[in-house]
Amino acid sequence: MNINIGIKETDRQAIVQGLSVLLANTYTLYLKTHNYHWNVTGPMFNTLHLMFEQQYTELATAVDEIAERIRALGEFAPGSYSAYAALTSIPEDSSIPCAEDMIRNLVEAQETIARQAREVIAIASEASDEPSADLLTQRMQAHEKTAWMLRSLIA
Q: Where is the Ferritin/DPS domain (predicted)?
């Protein structure tokens, strides 16, 4: 069936594209954070191990919410490693970094997603797509807060 929810086709496609990148970035950050949870070492082990678990759990929920919004807009959500690799702007690690570099890498990734969400929210707002704008606002808040908490560990 055709989609007729009050959003122009070109706007809907632009929002879906932005949300697809957000999904890929969020999933990539989920994997990175989970990897760090498993492999962190050093004096901050317990603190970081628990913090990373909270973060990847929140990201897992976010992945589902973003994908479901893409579906509500009438498109299929990307869901493969190759699709995510083509869309993401968050780099993979080639090795296991030290704890402090893990924190720095996660700050950078969190800020990347916040910036990307801010770009898409402009498109969603212009198209009067309040549900997408609300989702993007929530994601910006979560990523900016997490980046702040991580930055605070390495003053």
A: 19-154
